[in-house]
Amino acid sequence: MSEEETVPVAKRTRSSSQPSTELNIELFRTPQHQDAYFNIFDRRTLIVEREVRFDTLDTTFVPRIFETKDWAALFGNFVDLMIELVKECFANTVDLESELHCLVRGTKFIINLDTIAELLKITRPVDADLTPYDDCTPVIQDILQILGPDHDISSTGTLISTTKFSPELTTLKLIMFSNLYPLTNTVYINLGRAQFLCDLITGTTIDICAHIYHIIRKTTTRTVAQGCLPFCSLIMNFVLREGVTPPSIGNMIARPRPISMFTLQASKSHSSKAPKSAHLFSPTSSTSEQPGTTQPQSAPQPDKLQMLFDNIHKRLTEMEKTLRDGQKEQSERLVVMQDQIDVLVAQVDGIFTKLKQ
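Structure (tokenized):
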């Protein structure tokens, strides 16, 4: 399979931020990759990983879920992110199924299961089920046995509401949707994501590198502008490791505030006064323990404060993009005006030359 055979092709509608020029051979492989950048990836929402301060959450079950996992690189020590480089990587990626061939600023590199594990310093398990969670079809009653029976289900039976999650479970959900299974709208989750959450809680073996690779690969092959760009810090780490120097002019991504006890308290402050629910497995409990035998926890209202912060961050990102697009448009106008001025100056010089003669 050749690289050019796997390029996602966008509809040929020109974005307002797309310069009216031919192929920029310094940035893109082909015209199709350039179109993919402006018409698909430049329009998507970037999901930026959040630092997780597990030491502030030691009174909850959340740190115990991750204490035996070597996933530390997914939760902190993040590099600064440049929007253009992350989007160029997604746009210039060629899918060869078992690996992704990437190109950023003329530098080529490969993303696959092994390179992800190497970069994150993660030892891949040998006994994990490699079926993508997006392809899982778990029985909803099995999910509710772990998350609790009181959660609302969509009319189609394929989505579970997260609005009645306990504060601790809401915190775990935020960690999952920021750093492990990126998603912008977390009010409802599909059964695959719910299964991932349950596997975290019950301590089921997860090959996180295979999971990450599946999501990145799926993102690069989608041909619609809707959606998000996941694992931006990981992508930026690949770019920097290959020696790409970020340009002096570029747009840096503002990282959201850390997930910590403050996040948990914000969730608790909006907890519901409804009857208590949401029984959870403890990941350290014995295998003979039955579902629903742990201490019940109160079901909260949606994390309104967190939603407010997320909405503000999303709005600021949109405003930043609008401003950036406006600056590009003004720059193009200035170039045109400068060309017109140069023509007028040449004409005036010609007139003065004739008058002198």
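The chain is about 40% helix and 5% strand. The CA atoms of residues 189 and 244 lie 37 Å apart.
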